[in-house]
Amino acid sequence: MRFLDAWAGTIEALEIRKGQEPCPACDHARYEFLEGAAGTGSTKICGRSAVQVNPGRVAAADFQALSARLSAFGEVTFNSYMLRFQAGDKEIVLFPDGRAIIKGTADEAAARAMYARFIGA
Amino acid sequence: MNPNALRNDFPLLASGLVYLDNAATTQRPRQVLQTLTTFYERYNANIHRSPHALGEAATQMYEQAHAGVARFIGASSSREIVFLRNTTEALNLVAVSLCRGESGPLALRPGDEVVITIMEHHSNFVPWQALCREAGLHLRIVGLREHGALDLDQLSANLGPRTRLVCCTHVSNVLGTINPVIDVARMTHEAGALLLVDAAQSVPSMPVNVRSLGCDFLAFSGHKMLAPFGTGVLYGREDLLQRMSPFLFGGDMIQTVTESGSTWSSLPWKFEAGTPDVAAGIALGGATDTRTGQRLVGAVDYLAALGMDTVRAHEAALLEQLVKGLREIPRVTVTGPSDCAQRAAAVSFSVDGADPFVVARLLDDEGICVRAGGHCAYPLAARLGVDGTVRASPYIYNTASEVERFLGVVKDIVAHRIV
């Protein structure tokens, strides 16, 4: 599978093979992502204009690659524990396991959309 | 008390998790969990309804649980103990029932005043705000002195001939401040008013005797003191509860019902409408099957066996260690009284330049659970000028080495992990 991000000007390739295990979608007609069971979750943070976004799966975030991509849209700083991305009045703090705190909005849908746009679905 | 030995009673702690979010909710010991299981396996029946032996046993045990809680807080009888879902429901009961009062000293009238403090949890703030708006009452808010102590001079100035009720937390869930409730009770009664105490953070952690405090009402939650979720308690002086109108209406709270009207059951059942969480109530207050002698251990049994003086001493030692350690870390500010004798073990702090949620998440990465945010006390946060804090709150099963580990991680977060 090839992924072309025209906005960021990046191309990524993923090798996809049929595995030994039965595929939930192809073999069992279970569409976990379409049903939202494996989708991105979010929680409004108590007392703040901020939302915690949970991508629904543990995925090691590549801070180096993200930093390179996001720096076109705002200020990015990172270390091995967290990445901070400031875009206008919004800020994303991303942790290595893919979870993030989106500051500057209390709207969970807007926070998930921001996560999808800048970090990935 | 040996916290390392106690930890064996808490299945969730076996993983090595450092659980320092006890002001939000505590873990449950096997003995209390076993009570839930035993009830459902051997005694499950509805109470106050069923004529069969099982129903009688369940009823007796549920009533014993009320008596267990009454003993634990020094109430005169179990008639003064109402089981509810949580502290919030208990506080709302008082607000609603006071408003429904038809006559007598509890009837609130437009122009009457309710006094609260700025350090109240929303559960002891919003109900009074709403009640005052709806009933035309005036809400007076008492502020703080330096280091988060309640300003008793302000309290005195806010008490007047129209003051009907003072609502005060025993221990602030943000500042950790232990309020001088005995003094507050004296001042309140001298003004001819009643005192309602939010004891959600004190009953789990220190000896609390309602008669020594001199309060008229006191509310707390079971889930903050080893009992299941959905357990809360309202203590009320019997003569006051007798004169108050019911909170909810329905089954079990009535004596007679006719087409023309209803009369109410005796205390405390007048305030416990509908089928309660019987198993959870027994897991809070404990009970013995009088036929078999089998003891179902309640959370108050577990804590009473440790001794609440011992619990307080253990927490005080961890508190000293926490406060001292945090104050030694650059950029860290600890809120609340500097004298640990005047505070309980809920320790809130902020890190200059760091969002409290980020700090909490970084602690979580190390297997350390704390809370972050406004702690359901936004007016206090606004008065303190903070956007939120991180809160560490140890309990009986936490150890000095866990606190040491927590302090080490906070130190490292401040020095290396925040960008």
Structure description:
The complex is a heterodimer of chains A (about 120) and B (about 425). With about 120 residues, chain A is α+β, with helices and mostly antiparallel strands. Chain A has helices spanning about 25-30, 30-35, 65-70, 110-120; strands spanning about 1-5, 10-15, 40-45, 50-55, 75-80, 85, 90-95, 100-105. Chain A has a domain at about 40-120: TATA-Binding Protein. Chain A contains four helices and eight strands. By secondary structure, chain B is α/β, with parallel strands linked by helices. Chain B folds into two domains: about 5-20 and about 310-415, Aspartate Aminotransferase, domain 1; about 30-295, 3-Layer(aba) Sandwich (Aspartate Aminotransferase, domain 2). In chain B, about 40% of the residues lie in helices and about 15% in strands. Chain B contains 15 helices and 17 strands. Chain B has helices at about 5, 30-45, 55-75, 85-100, 125-135, 150-160, 180-190, 210-215, 240-245, 280-285, 300-305, 310-325, 355-365, 380-385, 400-415; strands spanning about 20, 80-85, 115, 140, 165-170, 195-200, 215-220, 230-235, 255-260, 260-265, 285-290, 295, 330-335, 345-350, 370, 370-375, 390. In chain B, the strands form five sheets. A seven-stranded mixed β-sheet of chain B has the order 2-8-7-6-5-3-4, with helices on both faces. In chain B, strands 13-14-17-16 form a four-stranded antiparallel β-sheet, covered by helices on one side. A two-stranded parallel ribbon of chain B has the order 1-15. In chain B, strand 3 (about 115), helix 5 (about 125-135) and strand 4 form a beta-alpha-beta unit. In chain B, helix 2 (about 30-45) crosses helix 10, helix 11 packs across helix 12 (about 310-325) and helix 12 (about 310-325) runs parallel beside helix 15 (about 400-415). The mean pLDDT of chain B is about 95. The interface of A and B includes residues 47, 95 and 96 of A.
